[in-house]
Amino acid sequence: MLHTLSSRRLPSAPLLLLAWWALSLAQADPNATPTIQLRLAGDKRKHYEGRLEVYHSGEWGTVCDDDFTIYAARVACRELGYLDAEAWTPSAKYGQGQGRIWMDNVNCQGNEKSLALCNSNGLGVSDCKHSEDVGVVCTQKRMPGFKFVSNVGNNLEDVRIRATYSQRKRVPVTEGFVEVKDGGKWRQICSQDWTPLNSRVICGMYGFPGEKDSKSKSSLKNYWGFGVNCTGTEADLSDCKLGRQVELKGNGTCEQGMPVVISCVPGRAFAPTVSAGFRKAYRVEQPLVRLRGGAVIGEGRVEVLKNGLWGTVCDDNWDMKAATVVCRELGFGSAKEALTGARLGQGIGPVHMNEVQCSGFEKSLTECAFNSEATGCGHEEDAAVKCNIPAMGFNSRLRLSGGRNPYEGRVEVLAERNGSLTWGAVCSDSWGTMEAMVVCRQLGLGFADNAFQETWYWQGEPSAEAVVMSGVRCSGTELTLDQCLHHGKHLNCPKGGGRFAAGVSCTQAAPDLVLNAQAVEQTTYLEDRPMYALQCAQEEHCLSSSATGASSTSYRRLLRFSSQIHNNGRSDFRPRSGHQSWIWHECHRHYHSMEVFTHYDLFSLNGTKIAEGHKASFCLEDSHCEEGIQKKFECANFGAQGITTGCWDTYRHDIDCQWIDVTDVKPGDYIFQVVINPNFEVAESDYSNNIMKCRCRYDGNRIWMYNCHIGMIITLQTFFI
Asked: What is the pTM assigned to this prediction?
């Protein structure tokens, strides 16, 4: 909530008159409800959470947590302009306040219009300490048209950037008039006392990492009566202080300024274009910070590159300033949330940074101070962010049609056909998980759950039956479907649209499989095994081609190892096919829920494949789970298969096909690689950690596995996002 930077001295006569008026009201009605104002303060990570503070008698104070309940939190949040409360926190979670403790033993029914109407000990009557200051977490949505009243009487309902004439056809709008909604009307802000720091905050709110100078060329009469004073590190204008009252002329124009016009600098991925134009290409530079595991654009677990390895950031002291530095560094605006407790999934590898402290003006998170000696932080404390992104209109050219709910349906795109824009279907040839991931992300619906090549059970719009997009191939990192490779105007879709149109289903949470590299490194060994003991493995094509026709008394040399596969995501990993579609293998007498669950390869140092193997998922189950997590999946008696979040499945080294046949491999140095879910058959939140690589040395009799790592080792010559 906006609050005053400094109070202005009033003339003595008006001051006496104001005091006499207040005294008269008190004498007239001694039982009148005291007037209070509320705000959220302290070490908060979101603008809709914080320490609950009360303004009364010219002084801000706190509220004690004694007898405080969710009903009191609801009253407070609604008084602050939010729809409801999500939670409340005791024991000064957002830091200890200062000054008086205004309210104690607050007892609300939940339907009061103000916290002052709830039962309490009375304003200023408390036996608490500031270590008992209460905090609240409100819902992110605000009440439509709510008037945020500051302690100088202004009514602020909303803020916007109204595009200048030259920006009206630009996407996104990067330049415009700053306007606030006051009393139901949009009003411009006078440039008197306006600073670039104010522009920085506004641009950040609208998804832009930077700002530049811009001057107004017109003067209007519809002005807001106050200024704003921001430090530049705020994540939202509501966190800034209110500046002095602006002097307006009798005709409503600004006495000493013009309307504020700001110009924002977009990130590279959001470079402005005309509505139907083309984006300029740019050279990708090596990032030092990245986001992983996020369901939508601009959110994810924070990972940092150090000494060639990606690692995570501990959430100790993680706040909005640090989160905003990350967001701006990656080309987004300020942070909407600074998430803790691995809310967007657990990472892998080292924890590179702990107790991060940023001023808010650093160019990179790597420039912020942190405690390099702090230990004891695990991946259950991985920090994450949600960033503001520009209004790109991504979902205006794509929709889902015919589904049972908004998260599924036939994919329809808005494309130019015969000189006009029309909705049409997408060809399902080669349509898969990666394409579905892009669709769900573009629509803000999270991760892909399934990709469908037949959608006869979803009745799309009759006018959108014709195919307008074909040959779609995505890498999974694109922001929109039209950024993927596709045929353009030269369509080629033999099956046509209709029942064969592409479809998707989306979900807000997804699994994330990660291989334990250390377990592979520690369990590797060679075994010489006779062919007569490998007949079932031969039937499942787990041996090299030279084994075909080999004598039953001959031997095969097998590179064996154990696989320990963890689910670090936020939902369970389940085979895509239902139990009725699993394949029965008579020799091994078990079902395969996924024909290729993992793939094993041996490469020469120049990248040539020397040998390979694969493992079907004959039994996906919870071998072990973290403390406090119950196992859900067990293969006994043909039970359900999968890996629960927080659990892992172990394929022991002595199981058939848990190997690479190296009978024909010559001694030398090699690269050993394991890929989980190689065909992207099941959607995950992050595929970059599905690959494990090791250096491998074979002397003809023994084998050494060393330097195992997940993903790709980064060198100065390697450039990728």
From this structure: 0.73
